[in-house]
């Protein structure tokens, strides 16, 4: 909550609030398998614990996701990053940024936190190797000063992982 | 049962369902039938449809055919399962009878009973149809291409948002500020011509007229895109718009003064003889009383009210039409001439 991006963020609109409350209730009744929402009183930033699916490279490992919601959620995509240490994965940078089209260009307001989580777990599960992206160092250097991954011009080229 | 009888039944099915029936294999019968609820004649009242696959074995009709859903719209998994179960149940009941038409009719029956949107609005996650609140449910709409339903308010909010986003992109791509309005208009036209959107749920392309229809119904057409509003802001400051507004206000005021009537009196004004004092006194006396009553509230018009009645009447009638000139001192004679000319121009 102390990061500069959090304090400068605009508060949720009423519509965004209603929708998030609805999602939270839904989550409490029926959470996606492998995910645990850490209860806080902050509706605008969710911290979610991910546990790697059994039988995959990340089995039993636990990572933390940070989901920040913009003023006009769900029209705008939430910002989703792994809280470092991020899982080593060909599409996840060491600063926690995730290269996944649905978080950026392919976002649709019909998606939910729950559906994002399922996509992320599927992305982790299909990983062939615990490896950083080839351009990890360059990208992370460019992202200093807490730049949001939503400002990155992503290039989605690999649909296999 | 004989092969001929089964073949004859297939012919019957084809006759009943026409183009909606696709025969994959004549014997043993394997067919796909596209089925709609009975109410589907009114397309706006159709929320579900399905293509049912029926695949019979060589033991048909002793052994019922295998039922599957090839394609469907508006049916979630639960309702798809329900549909298959109910058709399969009937198939078992009718074993050893020729049953294909009966199975299709059962499917139509089921679809008819399911012909309402189900579940939550994908955008706000609140129910589309709230059984508890009954008629208090919010209005919703359906995309014709995929039958996905949304609350009208929700889809319009989303639509306006994506229009605004693409406007922004167009704006940021054009650096020169002088060509901004032009670019906006081009962008608008591009969107109108593009006339395609993608369903938020399935990304299936839909025609924007689906949405525009809803915009019309809700009466928010003016908010279709922010670009138009921005262009308006520029137009609003232009002289032509100011004049247009003054004219409108003049007509509106006139309408209020004459309790809604404009036309007959306006004809009077246009008569050239009207401006001669003798000709005017009689017919104008009545309207002078009504119009002076409202005029007295407006101090700026007092000088005009005090002038002779022949001048006063057209002046009061179109006073805001002359707003532009009001500040300039003018003798009443000039004003009258001006009016005659102007009215002639606008009426020719």
From TrEMBL, chain A:
Keywords: ATP-binding, Nucleotide-binding, Transferase, Ubl conjugation pathway. Gene3D superfamilies: Ubiquitin Conjugating Enzyme. Pfam families: UQ_con (PF00179). Coiled coil: none annotated. Residues 15-161 form the UBC core domain. Its EC number is 2.3.2.23. The active site is at 99 (glycyl thioester intermediate). GO terms for molecular function: ATP binding; ubiquitin conjugating enzyme activity. Accepts the ubiquitin from the E1 complex and catalyzes its covalent attachment to other proteins. Belongs to the ubiquitin-conjugating enzyme family. This is E2 ubiquitin-conjugating enzyme. The lineage of its organism: Eukaryota, Viridiplantae, Streptophyta, Embryophyta, Tracheophyta.
TrEMBL record, chain B:
Residues 121-203 form the RING-type domain. It comes from the Eukaryota. GO terms for biological process: protein ubiquitination. Residues 281-298, 305-323 have a biased composition (Polar residues). Residues 324-340 have a biased composition (Basic residues). GO terms for molecular function: ubiquitin protein ligase activity; zinc ion binding. GO terms for cellular component: nucleus. Gene3D superfamilies: Ubiquitin Conjugating Enzyme (3.10.110.10), Zinc/RING finger domain, C3HC4 (zinc finger) (3.30.40.10). This is E3 ubiquitin-protein ligase RNF25. It comes from Buddleja alternifolia.
């Amino acid at each position: 909550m102390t990061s500069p991006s959090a304090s400068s963020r605009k508060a949720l609109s009423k519509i965004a609030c209603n929708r998030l409350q609805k999602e939270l209730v839904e989550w409490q009744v029926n959470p996606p398998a492998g995910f645990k929402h850490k209860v806080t009183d902050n509706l605008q930033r969710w911290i979610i614990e991910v546990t790697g699916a059994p039988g995959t490279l990340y089995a039993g490992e636990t990572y933390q996701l940070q989901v920040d919601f913009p003023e006009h959620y769900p029209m705008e995509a939430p910002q989703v990053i792994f809280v470092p240490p991020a899982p080593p994965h060909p599409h996840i940078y060491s600063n926690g940024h995730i290269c996944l089209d649905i978080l950026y260009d392919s976002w649709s307001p019909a998606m939910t936190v729950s559906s994002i989580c399922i996509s992320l777990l599927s992305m982790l599960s299909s990983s062939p190797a615990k490896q950083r992206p080839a351009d990890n160092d360059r990208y992370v250097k460019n992202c200093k000063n807490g730049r949001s991954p939503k400002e990155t011009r992503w290039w989605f080229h690999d649909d296999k992982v | 049962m004989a092969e001929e009888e089964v073949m004859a039944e297939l012919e019957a099915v084809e006759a009943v369902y026409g183009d909606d029936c696709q025969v994959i294999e004549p014997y043993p019968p394997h067919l796909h039938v596209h089925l709609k609820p009975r109410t589907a004649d009114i397309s706006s009242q159709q929320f579900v449809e399905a293509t049912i696959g029926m695949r019979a074995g060589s033991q048909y009709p002793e052994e019922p055919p295998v039922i599957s859903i090839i394609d469907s719209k508006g049916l979630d998994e639960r309702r798809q399962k329900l549909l298959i179960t109910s058709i399969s149940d009937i198939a078992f009941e009718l074993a050893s009878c020729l049953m294909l038409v009966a199975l299709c009719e059962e499917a139509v029956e089921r679809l008819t009973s399911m012909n309402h949107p189900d579940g939550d609005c994908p955008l706000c996650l609140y129910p589309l149809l709230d059984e508890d609140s009954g008629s208090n449910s919010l209005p919703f709409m359906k995309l014709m291409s995929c039958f996905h339903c949304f609350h009208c308010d929700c889809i319009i909010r989303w639509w306006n948002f994506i229009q605004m986003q693409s406007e922004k992109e167009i704006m940021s791509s054009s650096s020169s500020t002088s060509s901004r309005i032009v670019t906006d208009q081009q962008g608008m036209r591009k969107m109108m011509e593009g006339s395609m959107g993608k369903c938020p749920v399935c990304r299936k392309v839909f025609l924007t007229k689906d949405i525009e229809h809803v915009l019309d119904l809700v009466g928010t057409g003016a908010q279709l895109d922010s670009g138009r509003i921005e262009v308006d802001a520029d137009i609003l400051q232009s002289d032509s718009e100011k004049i247009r507004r003054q004219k409108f206000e003049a007509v509106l005021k006139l309408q209020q003064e004459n309790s809604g009537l404009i036309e007959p009196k306006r004809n009077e004004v246009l008569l050239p003889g009207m401006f001669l004092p003798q000709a005017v006194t009689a017919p104008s006396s009545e309207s002078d009383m009504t119009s002076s009553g409202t005029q007295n509230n407006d101090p700026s018009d007092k000088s005009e009210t005090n002038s002779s009645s022949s001048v006063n009447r057209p002046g009061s009638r179109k006073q805001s039409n002359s707003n532009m000139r009001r500040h300039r001192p003018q003798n009443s004679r000039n004003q009258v001439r001006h009016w005659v000319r102007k009215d002639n121009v606008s009426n020719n």
